[in-house]
Amino acid sequence: MHDFLLAKEIIDELKKIVVEKNIKRVKNVSLEIGTISLAHDGHPEHTEDISVENLEFGLKNIAKNTPFEETVLKIKKVKGESWKITEIKV
After folding, report:
1. CATH number belonging to the domain at 2-89, selected among 3.30.200.20, 3.30.2320.50, 3.30.43.10, 2.60.40.420
2. Mean per-residue pLDDT for 23-47?
3. What is the pLDDT of residue 47?
4. Given this model, what pLDDT does residue 5 score?
């Protein structure tokens, strides 16, 4: 479930970026994903390791009927407690 919520957060962030930069089509997006804080309260017991497979599934489903439907998503697991978009290719 948390993987799907993260997928929505990522797609929402991508939507903001394409509007800000007036991008019409995105070919590739590279992401780095660490251990995600579920409650965003800083307690180590409230973290979960995100499943890349589940995240990819969520991203593909949320991206339907958006400018990202055909976008290739590259996900890299990293150490740390957050996620970030590292590259967008148009």
Report:
1. 3.30.2320.50
2. 73
3. 59
4. 87
